[in-house]
Amino acid sequence: MQKLLLVLFFTASVWAAAVQNKDGNRSDPEFVKQKQHLIQEYTASLSAIDNDIPADSVWMKNYSSYLTSIEVKNNLAEVRAKIAKLSKNNKYGQNIEELSALRSKENILSNQMLQLKGKDATPFAELLTPPEIGEIPPINNPLDIFTGYSFIKQLRNNHEDYIKQKERLTRLIELLKMKKGIYDNLIVLQKDKKTKDSLEALKKQLDRFTIALDTINITDSVYKKRIEVIEININKKIEEQIYKLIKIGIIVVSLFVLSFLIKLIIKKYITDNERFYTANKIITFTNFTLILLILFFNYIENVAYMVTILGFASAGIAIAMKDWFMSILGWLVIVFGGSIHVGDRIRVDMDGMMYIGDVLDISLLRMTILEDITLTSYHKNRRAGRIVFIPNNYVFTRMIANYTHHSLKTVWDGIDIIITFDSNHKKALNICKEITRKYSKGYTDITRKQLNKLRNNYSLKNTNVEPRIFSFIEPNGVVISSWYLTNAYGTLTLRSTISLEIVEEFNRAGDITIAYPTQKLYLEEV
User: What is the pLDDT, as a whole number, of residue 484?
Assistant: First the structure.
């Protein structure tokens, strides 16, 4: 396009010089032919420039709205002047229909003015105004870093869009200047009213766009500096948060390393598994508590406000999560009350089932036990080895029995065996007593020492730890019930050993008969 215009301008110059040398003879056929040819070339160039201007150019549409607004404003002024003139001369009710038509036109033009409000004063106000920056987000914690970067990216995108608007306007002004140059040459060839009006309109349009470009350059400079200041402030706050996060990270890592070293030390000097587990839990809990406090006081600016909010929210949270809160309270009772420790053997009654096993872990919300093979498993559950999770709030609502509480490692177990009424009962009692005393002697001595320690915390009345043998009369014979102390973690093993030993001794004795459900049939001879 620019090359074409240069050729046209050169041709026009040559042609103008030729006109001067022909002594003003403009009726010459050659002269007329050249003139018509140049006019056609200029007209084609103007059409080409118009085609280069985008049909959806917001600048041209905005300027078109501006011209429409001026036209509507002038028409409205004319209509109102006519209405005023007719109303003044309408003394006898003449021209009523014309006044009515003018008033209708006035209403239509007034509505159009409302829709085009402000276009006649500032035609490019919306395009010249840069995008709103909006509220600058605060950078108070690490999560706000992403918000800050997102805000900066948004500002840059908005500024790029504003720059593109300026580039479109610059390109448009270049095209309009080309168009004006063509009109300047065209007016020399044909000085008709249409060409003059087009040139005057183009000059006004070019002046408007030039003023808009000057305005947008100044506005862009101010807008760019404002964005730069905002970016500097946000980046400074982001750097502060990053440094703060690094410091906290170093402290947290140091706490983890310190807790790890302490655990290694206590593992070296504490050989008891239960004490090591308790110490390990205390160190872990203390470590996480310190980390939470560090985070809390570093990222909560208004602690009093936070406490107030939590106070109002706690009621609803307590209702919605009452089981969790009860479990946490149960954890406090278990840990600080000392009723249950990791490694203890406990029994829990849950929903009609009884679970007996060893406590593997006591977390904030639940206890984890490993179900073992016990007499309960043999008689009722008929299965074992399951991992059972017991909510801590069960300490308030369920029956929980601890078989190994406070250093006790033994429990009483009993074996019942029925002998016939004609058996030697005293001999059977002595056999049971000797066998149970023989196999439970070690547990008896251990229990005696443990009960002596237990007296420091509890009031014990009966401290008899020797095996106890009882006899009861039942419909099928005499029941001998033998009770002895055994390891709480291995009751069935000793029970099986003692049971077989008693049966063997009874079978050796000739005057002891083990009773079992039998029937006797008496036949009489007739």
Answer: 92
Residues sharing a CB contact under 8 Å with residue 362, sequence separation 6 or more, in sequence order? 281, 331, 334, 335, 340, 341, 342, 368, 392
Residues whose CB is less than 8 angstroms from the CB of residue 350 and which lie 6 or more positions away in sequence, other chains included: 390, 394, 398
Tens of pLDDT, residue by residue over 269-328, are 777 666 777 778 788 878 888 888 887 777 666 555 556 655 656 666 666 667 777 888
CB 266 within 8 A of CB 282: no
DSSP string, 13-53: HHHHHHHHHTTT-TT-HHHHHHHHHHHHHHHHHHHHHHHHS
First to last CA, the chain: 146
Alpha carbon distance 239, 98 (integer Å): 74
CA 277, distance to chain mean position in Å, is 34
Distance CA 218, CA 212 (A): 10
- Chain segment 245-270, per-residue pLDDT in tens: 898 889 989 988 998 898 888 888 77
CA distance 226 to 187: 47
Predicted confidence at residue 173, as pLDDT, reads 87
Cα–Cα distance, 152 to 139 (Å, whole number)? 13
Do the beta carbons of residue 206 and residue 221 sit within 8 Å? no
Per-residue exposure over 503-515, b if at least 16 CB sit within 10 Å of its own CB, e if not: eebbeeeeebbeb
330-383 pLDDT per residue, tens: 888 888 887 888 888 888 887 778 888 898 888 888 889 998 888 888 878 878
pLDDT at position 307:
60
Phi, psi of 365 (to 5 degrees): -115, -20
Structure-token pair, residue 482: 């033998």
**Complete DSSP assignment for 269-289:** H---HHHHHHHHHHHHHHHHH
Query: Sign of the C-alpha dihedral, residues 456, 457, 461, 465?
Result: negative
Euclidean distance between CA atoms 422 and 83, whole angstroms: 140
Contact of 294 with 248, CB cutoff 8 Å: yes
What's the mean pLDDT when you consider all of the chain? 80
Examine the pLDDT at 149 and tell me if it is beyond 50: yes
DSSP state of 378: I
User: Does residue 392 contact residue 328 with C-beta atoms inside 8 Å?
Assistant: yes
3-state secondary structure of 368: strand
Distance of CA 321 to the CA centre of its chain: 20
**Residue carrying the six token digits 């209702």:** 319
Residues 391 and 364 sit within 8 Å (Cβ to Cβ): no
Backbone φ, ψ for residue 55 (5° rounding): -70, -25
Give the per-residue pLDDT at 97: 72
Helices and strands in the chain, H and E counts: 14, 8
Tokens matching residue 453: 């320690």
pTM reported for the whole predicted model: 0.54
